[in-house]
Each structure stands twice: as structure tokens, then as C-alpha cells.
Amino acid sequence: MASPGHLASAVVFGLVLVGVVVALARSFDWRVAGPARPARAARDRRDGFDAVADAARSPVAWLVGFLALALGGAAAAVVLVGGATGPVRQGVWLALGLVTAAVFGGYVFWGTYQSARSRGIGSATAVLAGLWLLGSLFVVAVIVRLVMT
To answer: 126 burial class (0-12, 13-18, 19+ CB within 10 angstroms)?
Structure first.
């Protein structure tokens, strides 16, 4: 059981977090946003980020990424089941944890970003919303970790 000081700290921090969320939610009308910016002209389209955007829209890139994740996960499972010990086992667990966290974080961020953009919110504000949600999830994970130890 956690000490009473840790529990009190977690409760106070949780209440402050809820207060901040309520204050932010009330400070902006999330249903109405300014008009979306018009699309750029075709001649202005080639910059450094467009190659990444084109790859993100490509089904082949998604297929290759999925296969890499699936094969990497299968290889990690084989290493873990095969009886690896010591630093190899710890490294595989670390890699699996990082990949899982990256996939989950990317999913949460991209979903938040697309949801905000579909409501007419600007790109920078949508990125802010995605990063804010990821930060909030991180804070919740820290709170859970502190309460459980």
C-alpha cells in the first residue's frame, strides 16, 4: 500500500489536473472554429514535408510499415520464447515496449489531429490538441505508477 503522503499528493494532483481540464474546456468554443485555409496551389506543393505526406498517403508504405511491425513482433516473440537470457531478453522487452508505446501514441495523436482538422480547426491547434492529449495520458500514467508503488 502506498504511503498516505503519496496518496494525498496523487489526489491533490488529480484534482488540479481535473481543474485545468475544465478550465481549458470552458475557455474555447470547440464546436466552432475559423474557416480552414484553402489548399495550396499545385506549384507551391513541393517542399520538404510533401515527400513524407505522399508516403503517408501511399498504401504501399502502410503495407511495408505494417509488415515490418508484424515481423518484428514475431521475431521478438521467437527470441523471448526461445529462452534468451540477460541483456538480450531485456533489450527485446524494451524494444517491444517502445514500439507498443509509439504505435499507441501515434494512434492517439493522429486520431486527435484528424478529429480536430475535420472540425475546421487549424493545423497548429490540431497538433496542440494531439500533443496535449498525449501529455495528459503521460501524466495519468505517472499518477497511476505513483499510486501503485
So the answer is: buried
